[in-house]
Amino acid sequence: ELGIRIPRPLGHGPSRFIPEKETIQVGKEDATMHTLFAESYATLGRLDNVTLVMVFHPQYLESFLKTQHYLLQMDGPLPLHYRHYIGIMAAARHQCSYLVNLHVNDFLHVGGDPKWLNGLENAPQKLQNLGELNKMLAHRPWLITKEHIEQLLKTEENSWSLAELIHAVVLLTHYHSLASFTFGCGISPEIDCEGGHTFRPPSVSNYCICDITNGYHGVDEIHASPAGNIPVSSTESVCEVEALMEKMKQLQECRDEEEASQEEMATRFEREKRESMFVCSSEDEESAATRDVSRHFEDTSYGYKDFSRHGMHVPTFRVQDYSWEDHGYSLVNRLYPDVGQLLDEKFHIAYNLTYNTMAMHKDVDTSMLRRAIWNYIHCMFGIRYDDYDYGEINQLLDRSFKVYIKTVVCTPEKTTKRMYDSFWRQFEHSEKVHVNLLLVEARMQAELLYALRAITRYMT
After folding, report:
1. I want to staple 289 with a disulfide (CB 3.0 to 4.6 A). Which of 245, 294, 383, 418 is the partner?
2. Third-level CATH fold of 27-193
3. What GO biological process term is on the record, naming one (predicted)?
4. Which of 96, 185, 379, 410 is catalytic?
5. Could you confirm whether 280 is annotated as catalytic?
6. Domain boundaries in the chain?
7. What is the pLDDT of residue 46?
8. For residues 171 and 425, what is the distance between their CA atoms, to the nearest angstrom?
């Protein structure tokens, strides 16, 4: 009556990939989830869509919220507006307008200068200097050297202290990997953000053309198949699960019978690393960064390139020489107290999280599968575990799954609903979200290992 245009949500539910009625509905959550929702709301001033999808795994969500709250709001080396601006820089590298929008609001809320939002060149030189590290961490962390660290710590009046740099590195890696989660789970924009609402009235059939462009084609179609998936005969999907369980059983028996030699293990790692270069998204179209997001970083053409491309030889990163447990953890905890502890807990929860189920099967030991996923991601980053048989990866991860993993971890902005639907077709959505938690934490740890090793080399 007053002629005020009322925004309507564009999508349905917190994710474009998961039907709304299969997510956990606010108001129907249990006591644990209710506490987490309250915490998230108190911390962020909203109950965001990331939380509404992550809550499939309350134990992980609790650790994630605690860590993020500490990084953004508790005492630390960096001022609050710097923290949100670094979040914007990191998310923008993957064109993640969802996270950029949230942090633009938070940046302004804590008193950040609106001029900085016109482009990175308007931010202080100190933050501009972080651009190179942001770019390499996001796309090719194996190229980071102690010289890059030295440039940041020794640039006269715009220099970073070691503690500030550790804080910045943890924030950058946190938001790069959170961009992976956002795209990997098809997180919908918040209603108050760009792309989250429309002013069109509801159409006759209850969904409008904007829903179709968001991959939503009406309730009937989405529920036509097991997990909102590409229609597939249920026997075919069940066979897929059975075959995977059978392979796990056979590999366990082989492990018990004989162990490969160190030389053979090294050869298998190199083979898997080479093969991972040939795994690429079939929908590998260039996604152009929108001006709105790309102004927050420099060198927009710089992106992911495989670890050992075009005869470039980057030495393998051996975990035996520098690991999170023995080296990274203590360095972070020394320079930014308590953060090492929080990150360590989050890594452990993601890596060890299990409900001992696989699709419709119960009492399953999934540790072999979780380790294969984690080590495959580290393998793509050139990180090798001497005690792991990389031959297991090809046995357990099929091609469509590898395409999904590599896309979400390396070029998350290219993830599509088709990729999400095409792997593990009989599995629950909660299990696919679980996969994304593994991808997020393995990626974050890989980036951190390269950055922290370079900082350690600089210090020594």
Report:
1. 294
2. AhpD-like (1.20.1290)
3. cellular response to leucine starvation
4. 96
5. no
6. 27-193, 240-282+293-459
7. 82
8. 34
